Amino acid sequence: MKKFNVVFCGTPDFSVPTLELLSTHPQINLKGVITMPDRPAGRGQKVQSPPVAEFAKSKKIPLYQTENINREEEFLTQLENEDIDFFVVLAFAQFLGSRVLNMPKLGCFNIHTSILPKYRGAAPIQYALLNGDKETGVSIQKMVKKMDAGDLIISDPLTIGEFETGGQLYTRLKFQAALSCNSLISKIDQGNLEYTAQDESSVSFAPTLKKEDGLLNFKESTFEKLQNQIRALDPWPGTYCFLNKKRLKVFEIEKFPGNIPAGELDLKHNAFVVGCKDCAIRLKFIQLEGKKAGDDKTLLNGLQNSKEILIINPEV
Q: What is the Cα gyration radius of the chain?
């Protein structure tokens, strides 16, 4: 049985199932794992290792942590003497320079969570949901110096569930990524690598999301757009609006009978009802800054003695 010398590059927990596959695959000789350095994280800012580093250490896989692999002269020289067949790259958060891309005999293969050329960039899972797509998937492309632009080897589609959130889709795709990587190994073993150039006229991008992307704009959005935004940004960065000057996190909405002008708040029905662009909606499960998360009726009960006039998104 032929064995391949492989290096894996990845960082978050999303990368771990694929790394686990490579670490146990009978045809893979995993020569090393490259990941980002340890960083402070969480409320206590305790220094933590990336999930990929934790897995590599637990399995005693040679591990190298760096901010920029392209500048690690000594390590790259060492790798060049290892007779590497290919790299597998998944959520690495670094660009690979020419020296690294040209080092393995078969090249570097990047696993991306969209059907390329759709959604090149950092947040393809969330953009598929934001745009109300019914399908996404996993692509594997041979890396070039341009982001996510290499020739395709594998495109494995995956249907998106009607109510699926970003977190749920993330979990399904991270295991699909490992399955797709297994298909890649089979193709390499069979000498069956076929490359398809991406259609540059169909390229779209999925840039990094910011916390501000979670602001719900009821005046400008339809119910469907708001619903897609809530699904896509769950769990991070989450969606919110402002009740006067306080942040109100919104976890679940539903359509509500009647018509209310877009952006206006109606509390007459013992529910938190807001007008959006095409209908009235109930903010069903919410959390006001400084309060516990709960249904809208619980929040209204807590506000019943307030004489303050309540306004949704006063500055939007």
A: 23
Residue with tokens 């596959």, as numbered in its chain: 21
Q: How far apart are CA 212 and CA 20, in angstroms?
A: 35
Going by the DSSP 8-state scheme, the letter that residue 205 receives in this structure is B
The one-letter amino acid code at 107 reads G
Q: How far apart are CA 297 and CA 118, in angstroms?
A: 41
Cα distances (Å, whole numbers) of residue 185 to 7, 14, 66, 255, 282: 13, 19, 27, 48, 49
Note the pLDDT tens digit of each residue in 50-78: 999 999 999 999 999 999 999 999 999 99
Structure tokens at 122: 């950092």
- The 8-class DSSP code of residue 38 comes to P
C-alpha–C-alpha distance, residues 7 and 31, integer Å: 6
pLDDT of residue 1: 86
Query: Is pLDDT at 309 greater than 90 in this prediction?
Result: no
Q: Which structure tokens are listed for 142?
A: 């041979």
Q: How far apart are CA 144 and CA 109, in angstroms?
A: 9
pTM beyond 0.85: the answer is yes
Do β-strands 86-90 and 4-10 pair in parallel, antiparallel, or remain unpaired? parallel
Quick one: which of 228, 236, 239 has its CA closest to 285? Answer: 239
Q: How far apart are CA 38 and CA 8, in angstroms?
A: 17
Q: Which structure tokens are listed for 302?
A: 């807590």
Q: What is the C-alpha separation between 136 and 119, in angstroms, rounded?
A: 10
Q: What angle do CA 235, 242, 295 make, to 5 degrees?
A: 60
Pairing, β 265-266 against β 152-159: unpaired
